[in-house]
Every structure is written in C-alpha cells, then in structure tokens.
C-alpha cells in the first residue's frame, strides 16, 4: 500500500474512534432526562392519588363533583414543583464537566414509582376509577348531572306511586259501595247478567192480575219477596224469579228473615215456611192465626185465638218443635217479636176499659212461666213491636212510639207525636234505629221525618212539604215515597235525588244506599237513585 492509502486508512480509524469523555457526557445527559421524566410522571401519579382520595371523601358525602372542582380544592403545597433543568457545561472545558458529572453520579439514587404501583396497573386502575361514576354509581346515589330547574323523578317511582294511588282509590270506592259489591250481587251478576243476559224477566216486572198489599212486599238480603193473593215469589236484583210457590190463603200475611219467609193466612190456620232455595213446608195451626214472627236462626212464633182465652202464643224451634206457649186472658195480641237467640219475646196486646183503648207490652222469658214484665199504655193502639237489639224493643203506636227496656232495670221511653198523625214508619234492626213520618196537616202533607236510637232518643230529623205514604231506611239514608215519586235523603235532611213514577206507588224498600224497589199498581220496579 502506498503512502496515500495508509493515510486514508488512518483518517478512517480516527473518525470511527469514540471519545470516552464525550460518551460519558451523553450518558449523563440521558440519565438526567430520564430522571426528569420519572419525576414528572411521579408528580402526576401523586396528583391522581390525591384526586382519588378527595373523590372518596366526597363520595362519603354523597357527591360527585367535577374534576376542576377537585383541582381548585387541592392544597397548593401538595403539587410538586418541577426542578429546573441543569445547564450543560461547554464543550471547551472537559475537565470541569467531568467533575460536575461525577458528583451527581455518586449522590443520585434511582427514583421509584409512587407507593410502588407499576405504571400499567395504575393506569388501568385510573381508567376504571374514571369510568365508575358513569357506568355504575355508588349504591344509593344517583349520577350527578348538570343542575337544572326541575328535578326529574325516576320512571319506576312514578309507576309505583300511580299504582298506589289507583289501589287507594279502589279501596275507598269499595268501602263506600260495599253493599253493591256483596257476594250475592257479584254472583247474580255473573249468573244472570253475564251468562244469561236473555232473561225472560227484567224490571219493571209486570204483576197485573195479582193483588199485593204494601205490608206483603219486603226483601230477603237484596232479593225481592212478595206475597200476592195467589202465590209467594222471590226475585233477585236482576228481576229473575228464584222461586214461586202457590197458596190458597184468603188473607196472606208475609214476614221475612235472612233464612227465608213465613206466610200465614190471617184468620185461618194454614201457614208456610219457605227457605231461600224455594223449598216449602206447609203446616196447620191449632187455631185461627192472628200474628207471627220469624227470625234468622229458624225459630218462629205464632199467635192464635184460643178457646177460654183471648190469645195464645206458640214458639217453635228450627225443627218445628214447640218449645214455649203462653195464654193471654186480658188482651188480644196484635204483634209479637222474638229476640235474636229465640229465648225471649215481646208481645203487644190490646184491650178496652170504659170505652178507651188500653195496650200492654209483655216481656216473656221462655224458661219461666210468668212474664218478666208488663207495661201498660193508655189511650193508644200498638201497631207493631220489634227488637232493636237484645235489650231494647221498639213499639210504634197510633199516638206515640215507645222503646221498652227488657233488661232487669226495665223502663219505657215514650215519644209522643204531639198531635201529629202517623203516615209511615220503618223499624231497622240492622242499624238499631226506627224512623217515623208525622204529618201536621189534615191531608197528610208537611211531614216531619224523625229518627230514634235504640234507647229511644231522637237522633235526627227534617221536614218535607209532600205527603209521605211509605218510607224505608238503609244505614244513614231514607227513601220517601210520595203519590208520584220516590225521594232519597240522608237522615239529617240532605236531599240526594228524586225519581218520578209512572203509576200509583204503594211501598218502597231500600236494598242499598242508593237503590230501591218500588211496588206500584200492576208492576214492580228497581230504581237507582
């Protein structure tokens, strides 16, 4: 190789040769840069950890603030300050640069991540932490949204509240209309209203050719029961016949209870017991019948004429066995009533003394031969007696009404009509009250409607200017029948409604708080008030 070639090879070696001082300087600068990046990263991690701690504290207070709000609340000293970059030593002083670089190389220690958390794991944890409030808020707290003027209710809560309101409305409606939602009415609705809509009989019911007295028109539960001059019939509240039983009584008289009906021939000896299924039992009394009573447990009482006495009382149990008898020597019996257990009776009798009427009220215990009590009433005729409860019995007369205390203390409460004439009355043992209509005019108009408690105290009253020919009560309401209409009132005089009738009415019976049956000439109608 010539001289020129050797020189070129030596120059190439000089170029490829690495200067040790320069290489040390580059490495130190790289370490400084790496340490700076690590410090910055650790400062950010520390900042994030502080944010996380602050967020947990705020969650405990049920809040989810924005990140800007957290940054504003962080203490100033918590944020680490970045260290200033070290100035590089000029290349023309290699000795000083080497001295400066050697000192930090000895003192400097490796910087670790904050709390020893690896970068990748911390970054994943931070991502989950940032997504958690959006995807699934803490239990019991709603996701915080931007404040608005109106607070939005969850759809689920609205639905629940709506269902509760509907249920409460239905309960209140059912309570105030419980009589219309009885098992009997519901059964009749499905039996005759839904599955048998083509019923042959419906209201108004034609009864032309039959003679029905006002006293022979009543209800068993909510079913119509009436006795005409030829038969006894039971109709449900859809007008469908449940049973019809023929009889041959000249003067039929009807008395009913929840068990069924008793029909007897006034002045004759025949009588019938008919249950609600239409099964009929026919009997003959020992003498001509004067009056009778029938109660829910199947016991019944018959009062007949008697040879040697003015009247005689017979009491029978549900097996038609005689359990008691009593003869009246001084009074003709006009009415009889049994208590709910069939162990006692109150009997009203009529006699005369010196041309004036004298009535008497007997209290009889079926375990004793003599009466427990006899209360005489002068100058009056008792039309009907009836137990209001097991202690008190009501008696309605021509000039006054009476309440008899049948207990040991006894006593008779008299409520005079004060010169007014009785036009109608109703004794309601379901509410333990009775109501009378008293007219202050000669033609029967201008009637006062008075209601009394079981003890005989006047509870409520009001007046109407029409002639009342019949009335019926149900709980706190009263239906008044005039010559051409039926009116519905509360017992304290609040008017609800009035319905005109097409024919001459004779009797009215309430079977719910707003529905009545009306007996008219030639037909029976159901009227909703």
TrEMBL record:
<feature type="region of interest" description="Disordered">
    <location>
        <begin position="1"/>
        <end position="147"/>
    </location>
</feature>
<feature type="compositionally biased region" description="Basic and acidic residues">
    <location>
        <begin position="87"/>
        <end position="115"/>
    </location>
</feature>
<dbReference type="InterPro" id="IPR036322">
    <property type="entry name" value="WD40_repeat_dom_sf"/>
</dbReference>
<feature type="compositionally biased region" description="Acidic residues">
    <location>
        <begin position="116"/>
        <end position="132"/>
    </location>
</feature>
<keyword id="KW-0812">Transmembrane</keyword>
<keyword id="KW-0472">Membrane</keyword>
<feature type="transmembrane region" description="Helical">
    <location>
        <begin position="158"/>
        <end position="176"/>
    </location>
</feature>
<dbReference type="InterPro" id="IPR043765">
    <property type="entry name" value="DUF5711"/>
</dbReference>
<feature type="compositionally biased region" description="Basic residues">
    <location>
        <begin position="44"/>
        <end position="62"/>
    </location>
</feature>
<keyword id="KW-1133">Transmembrane helix</keyword>
<dbReference type="Pfam" id="PF18975">
    <property type="entry name" value="DUF5711"/>
</dbReference>
<protein>
    <recommendedName>
        <fullName>WD40 repeat domain-containing protein</fullName>
    </recommendedName>
</protein>
<feature type="compositionally biased region" description="Basic and acidic residues">
    <location>
        <begin position="1"/>
        <end position="43"/>
    </location>
</feature>
């Amino acid at each position: 190789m010539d001289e020129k070639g050797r020189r070129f090879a030596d120059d190439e070696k000089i170029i490829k040769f690495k200067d040790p001082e320069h290489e040390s300087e580059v490495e130190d600068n790289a370490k400084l840069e790496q340490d700076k990046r690590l410090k910055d990263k650790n400062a950010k991690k520390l900042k994030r950890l502080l944010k996380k701690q602050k967020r947990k504290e705020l969650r405990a207070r049920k809040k989810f603030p924005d990140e800007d709000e957290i940054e504003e609340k962080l203490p100033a000293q918590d944020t680490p300050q970045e260290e200033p970059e070290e100035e590089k030593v000029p290349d023309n002083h290699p000795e000083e640069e080497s001295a400066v670089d050697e000192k930090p190389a000895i003192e400097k220690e490796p910087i670790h991540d904050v709390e020893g958390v690896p970068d990748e794991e911390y970054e994943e944890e931070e991502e989950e932490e940032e997504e958690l409030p959006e995807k699934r808020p803490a239990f019991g707290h709603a996701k915080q949204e931007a404040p608005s003027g109106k607070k939005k209710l969850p759809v689920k809560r609205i639905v629940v509240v709506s269902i509760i309101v509907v249920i409460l409305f239905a309960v209140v409606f059912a309570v105030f209309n419980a009589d219309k939602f009885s098992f009997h009415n519901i059964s009749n609705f499905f039996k005759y209203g839904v599955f048998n809509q083509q019923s042959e009989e419906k209201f108004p019911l034609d009864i032309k050719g039959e003679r029905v007295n006002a006293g022979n028109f009543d209800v068993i539960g909510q079913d119509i029961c009436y006795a005409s001059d030829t038969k006894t019939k039971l109709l449900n509240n859809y007008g469908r016949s449940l049973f019809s039983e023929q009889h041959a009584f000249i003067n039929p008289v009807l008395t009913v209870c929840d068990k069924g009906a008793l029909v007897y021939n006034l002045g004759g000896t025949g009588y019938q017991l008919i249950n609600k299924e239409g099964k009929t039992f026919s009997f003959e009394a020992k003498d001509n019948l004067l009056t009778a009573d029938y109660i829910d447990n199947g016991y019944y009482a018959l009062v007949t004429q008697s040879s040697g006495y003015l009247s005689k009382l017979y009491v029978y149990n549900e097996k038609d066995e005689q359990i008691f008898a009593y003869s009246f020597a001084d009074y003709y019996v006009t009415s009889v009533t049994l208590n709910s257990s069939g162990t006692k009776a109150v009997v009203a009798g009529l006699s005369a003394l010196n041309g004036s009427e004298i009535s008497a009220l007997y209290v009889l215990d079926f375990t004793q031969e003599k009466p427990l009590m006899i209360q005489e009433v002068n100058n009056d005729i008792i039309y009907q007696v009836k137990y209001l409860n097991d202690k008190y019995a009501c008696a309605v007369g021509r000039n006054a009404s009476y309440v008899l205390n049948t207990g040991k203390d006894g006593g008779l409460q008299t409520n005079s009509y004060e010169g007014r004439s009785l036009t109608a009355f109703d004794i309601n043992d379901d509410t333990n009250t009775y109501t009378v209509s008293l007219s202050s005019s000669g033609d029967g108009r201008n009637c006062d409607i008075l209601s009394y408690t079981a003890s005989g105290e006047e509870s409520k009253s009001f007046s109407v200017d029409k002639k009342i020919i019949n009335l019926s009560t149900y709980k706190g309401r009263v239906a008044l029948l005039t010559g051409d209409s039926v009116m519905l009132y509360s017992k304290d005089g609040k008017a609800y409604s009035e319905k005109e009738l097409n024919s001459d009415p004779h009797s009215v019976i309430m079977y719910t708080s707003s529905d009545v049956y009306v007996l008219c000439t030639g037909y029976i109608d159901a009227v909703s008030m």
